[in-house]
């Protein structure tokens, strides 16, 4: 196995950089994307839409997750294994929570929301065309949601691999020091 393949996760995301005191570029990018994603909670709060308590709870959760991700950035910068361990746990929990809320909102939107247009009630051809377009858009949207959830799981796996590689490196360093 070459050195370059050992330093990547799934031969795609780098696990370390030139100096191992710097955090992984891949995990750093994943964490920044996580912060940007969770900033949606801020926009949900300022929209003043408090009619759906589940959506409001997700907005609050997203805002709290921004702070957790920011703390993870600090842990990545300082190479603090305790913070990184908490971040790995949080990311997997976030993956489950995000998947559950995605399923909740998608089901609510596609199954329980009336998408008919009253102005098309008299024109059956246009109503059928509207329903066909909505069905096609629904399939595309659901496919994208599934792909995004799978990417979220993959990112959780990458963060876990990074944490394990850092922990393994530090345990080797402490063993080497014990023998000196």
TrEMBL record:
The gene is ABSGL_11749.1 scaffold 12318. It holds the Pfam family Kei1. InterPro entries: Kei1. Keywords: Membrane, Transmembrane, Transmembrane helix. Coiled coil: none annotated. The keyword Oxidoreductase does not apply. GO terms for cellular component: Golgi membrane; inositol phosphoceramide synthase complex. The chain crosses the membrane at residues 12-36, 56-74, 86-107, 142-163. Signal peptide: none annotated. GO terms for biological process: inositol phosphoceramide metabolic process. PANTHER family: INOSITOL PHOSPHORYLCERAMIDE SYNTHASE REGULATORY SUBUNIT KEI1. This is MARVEL domain-containing protein. The keyword Membrane applies. It comes from the Eukaryota. GO terms for molecular function: inositol phosphoceramide synthase regulator activity.
